[in-house]
Amino acid sequence: MGRLIYGTAYDGMIRFSLIDSKDIVSELRERHKLSYLPTVVLGRLTTAAGLVIPWLSEKETITFVISGNGPAGNVVSQSSAKGTVRGYITNKDFELEPNEIGKFDVKNAIGQGELTVVRDVGLRTPYVSKVPLISGEIAEDVAYYYTKSEQIPSAFALGVLMEKNGVLTSGGLAVQILDRHLPNEVIIKIESNLKNFSMTHYLFDNIPLEEIASYVLGVNKLIYEETNVVFKCNCSKEKAFESIMILELEDLYELLSEEKAEVTCKWCGLVYLFDKEDIEKAIELKKKE
Asked: What is the DSSP string of 16-76?
């Protein structure tokens, strides 16, 4: 479970959110059996998805899809207005040499490509936007999407700190300017505070989210709320059965000969098992299509 705080500052001219996502990223790592670098990559994107939860409408879900030519492949994270997140990465087990400053090389893990953002507000067709990846560091790419596609000047800071046995700390911060009349000196101060800012270092030192927000925004008192964010997948055996129904009859008969079938949810790694009777049912339904 992750703790999320969110609110406004400077008379509503700025909105912000901060999250401690260590437990969420740890669960992602365990569920998907991720090595170190994939944990950092997926952890950063899922942290970003968690940060924007307060900005979603009542029934909305938002999905970030990074499609790059690096070894990570596709990286996908989704959050909902209900306070849930989930995600997956194509390549679960790979490592690269540290970058020039000795940190995980997320940029080259992702490579060049694009960020696709899908916003589902419950209408027949979701809203889909695409922007090029400008850095591969994820925080800058998500901020660029909001600044470019939604015309909201934004800054994100994301981090996942690993140790030998797993995730040491993980979290993120997001700041958006809602009113362009915000004094320039405030913008300069926030930009200065974000320069060389490391969310994971603050969390490692057990600095509360409220204090981190006050420092970055340069204000002593904040108007904020807090909530919990949890990893939750909406998969089910019924949905897994539907994936079996996509197969051709000849493939179903091949499964029948094996007298079993397995369907693994890409979002959470849960495995659904189907026996001979389930496959026979699928074949009969397929014949009626």
From this structure: EEEEE-HHHHHHHHHHHT--HHHHHHHHHHHHHHHHTGGGS-TT-EEEEEEEESSTT-EEE
Q: What is the pTM of this model?
A: 0.91
What is the Cα–Cα distance from 34 to 88, expressed in whole angstroms? 10
Q: Which two structure tokens, joined as six digits, stand for 271?
A: 């495995």
Q: How confident is the model over 269-284, as a mean pLDDT?
A: 89
Candidates 99, 76, 73; CA nearest to 87 is: 76
Q: Report how far apart, in Å, the C-alpha atoms of 263 and of each of 63, 119, 236 are.
A: 22, 27, 11
The string of pLDDT tens digits covering residues 68-108 is: 999 999 999 999 999 999 999 999 999 999 888 888 899 99
Query: Residue 119 has which token pair?
Result: 């916003």
Residues in Cβ contact with 262 at an 8 Å cutoff, skipping those fewer than 6 apart: 271, 272, 273, 274
Q: How far apart are CA 263 and CA 270, in angstroms?
A: 8
As a whole number of angstroms, the distance between CA 175 and CA 157 comes to 9
Compute the half-sphere exposure of residue 140: CA atoms within 13 Å on the CB side of its CA: 9
Per-residue pLDDT tens digits for 167-226: 999 999 999 999 989 999 999 999 999 998 999 999 999 999 999 999 999 998 888 999
Count Cβ atoms below 10 Å from residue 101 Cβ, excluding itself: 6
Tell me how crowded residue 237 is: count the other CB atoms within 10 A of its CB: 13
Rounded distance, CA 217 to CA 219, Å?
6
Q: Quick check: 45 and 34 in contact, CB under 8 A? A: no
